[in-house]
Amino acid sequence: MDGAGTTLLDAVRRRLAQSGAEPTPARVAAALRAQGRLLGDAEVLGAAEELRTELVGTGPLEALLADDRVTDVLVAAPDRVWVDRGSGLELTRVVFPDAASVRRLAQRLAAAAGRRLDDARPWVDARLPDGTRMHAVLPPVAVGSACLSLRVVRPKAFSLAELAAAGTLPPGGEQILRVLVRARLSFLISGGTGTGKTTLLSTLLGLVGKRERIVLAEDSAELRPDHPHVVRLETRPANQEGAGEVTLKDLVRQALRMRPDRLVVGEVRGAEVTDLLAALNTGHEGGCGTVHANAAADVPARLEALGTAAGLDRAALHSQLAAAVSVVIHLVRDRTGRRRLAEVCVLERDAEGLVVPVPALRWAPDGFVRESGCARLTALIGGAS
Predict the structure, then answer these.
(1) Thinking of the domain 59-153, which architecture would CATH place it in?
(2) CA 43, CA 167: separation in Å to the nearest integer?
(3) 160-384 architecture in CATH?
(4) Spatial distance between the Cα atoms of 110 and 103, rounded to a whole number of angstroms
(5) How far, CA to CA in Å, does 277 sit from each of 38, 283, 298?
(6) From the CB of residue 74, how many other CB atoms can be counted at a distance below 10 Å?
(7) pTM score > 0.90 for this model?
(8) What are the pLDDT digits (tens) for 57-99?
(9) Residue 163, class by beta-carbon neighbours within 10 Å (0-12 exposed, 13-18 middle, 19+ buried)?
C-alpha cells in the first residue's frame, strides 16, 4: 500500500479504535467515506481484511499461525519474521509496515491475555485465549523494534507413529516408550528449548490407562494429552497490586489432594521440585515432567541447583531423586534443526551416593543401540512388556 493509502488506513484505524466497533466491511466503508474517499468494493474489502487482522486477529502473522506445521513464530524486526516448521528456523516473506505495527500487535495480544505491556512494564509472558504461548519485549529493552515470540499449542497431541514418521523416534522406539509408560515408571523428559519436550510428554500421557486420573500442573497450559480424564491446573501471576499470585509450587501441593494416578509437572524449574520429589516418594507412581538440560548427564546438577534454591541440601536432593525418578528421556535438535530422542537413561547412585544418569538406549538411524544401563532398564520395566 502506498503512502497515501497507509495514511488513510491510519485515520480509519483511529476512528474504529475510538468507537470500539468491529471492522466489518460496512463500518470500514463508512469510515472511509468520512475521510472523503470513495473506493470500489474490492478496495473496501481489502482494507477491511487488513484492519480486521490487525485489530482482531494476529495481523500479518495470521497465515503463519494457521499453518499446521508451524510450532514457533518469532518477530525480531518488522522485516525479520521467522518460523519453525520442525526443521529449524526459516525467514519468511512476512513484513510489517513499521516497528510501530509490531508494538501495537504485541500490546493488543498482551491485552487479550489480560496482561499489561507498556513502557513501565516492557515485557510479558502470557497465554493467549487460544492457548498460544506469547512472549514480548518492547524497546528500549529490545533494541530497534518490539520482539514477539509465539509458541503454538496444537489442540491434539501427536501419536507415537507420527513422531516416528517425523524422525523423532528411531525404528522400534515406539514400543519401548509404550512399555515404559505401562510399567508406571516415574520419568523426566530433558532437553534444550524447542527440542519437543512438551510434545513428547503430551504423546506419552495419551498412553496412560483410560481409567487413570492425570493431574497436570503447568506454568502455562501447553500439554494436550489425548486422554479422557485430565485435570489441568495453571499458575497465575500477581495482579497490578502484587496480590493473587499462584505458583507452580502451590499447584503441586493442590494436585496431591486431588487423587492423581499420574502427577505431572509441565516444566520443573523452581521450588516445586521439592514437592514433586516428595510426592513421587509417597506412592505416586508414574509421575513425570520436563526439565531444561543440555544433556541427560546434566539433569541431576540442574535439579540440585533448583533444590538448593528451595532450601533442600545436596545429599537430601540426591536421596529423594534416587527414590523418586527412574528414567530420563533426553531430546536434542540435530544440525538440520530436526528434533529427535537422543537417549534413554536410568538413574543410579554412584559410590558417593550421588545420582548419575546411566545411558540405556542411544538413538541410531536403524533403531536404539543398547548401552550399559539397558539391563537395569529391562529390570525396571519387568513384566510390563
Answers:
(1) 2-Layer Sandwich (3.30)
(2) 46
(3) 3-Layer(aba) Sandwich (3.40)
(4) 11
(5) 68, 11, 17
(6) 18
(7) no
(8) 687 898 898 888 898 999 999 999 999 987 788 999 999 989 9
(9) buried
